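Bumping my old thread because nobody answered last time. Still need a sequence for this structure:
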């Protein structure tokens, strides 16, 4: 993932967290906020409760790859927070989960037949409205 596609500053993470919309499933919380730029940027948060450094870094690598493989609309800041169970999930489950949450948030690109670029089955997802106007 290229440097310009990553959220790096604490202020950027805070803005997404306070002003963004949330989508949640069993493995991840995804917060999304329009950024007014021509690029979609990602930030990842994997806390120590997920596991040791090896487990946390494995989850972050898998999240980066799942985000990279998604065909996204431009102009969003996205923060993905790992929940308990993310370290035990295989890559296919992580990718399905992330693509499902991004599709539900309507940031995946539409393909010609009107479907989204990711065809993922929906499982146990709901929306949480974060700060700001909902």
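Sorry it took so long. Here it is:
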């Amino acid at each position: 993932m290229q440097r310009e596609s990553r959220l790096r500053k604490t202020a950027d993470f805070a803005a997404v967290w306070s002003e963004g919309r949330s989508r949640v499933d069993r493995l991840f919380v995804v917060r999304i906020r329009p950024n007014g730029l021509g690029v979609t940027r990602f930030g990842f948060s994997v806390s120590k409760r997920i596991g040791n450094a090896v487990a946390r870094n494995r989850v972050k690598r898998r999240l980066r790859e799942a985000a990279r493989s998604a065909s996204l609309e431009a102009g969003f800041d996205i923060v993905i927070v790992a929940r308990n169970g993310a370290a035990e999930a295989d890559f296919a489950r992580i990718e399905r989960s992330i693509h499902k949450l991004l599709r539900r948030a309507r940031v995946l690109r539409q393909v010609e037949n009107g479907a989204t670029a990711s065809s993922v089955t929906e499982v146990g997802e709901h929306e949480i409205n974060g700060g700001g106007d909902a």
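The chain has one domain: 3-108. Let me know if any region looks off to you.
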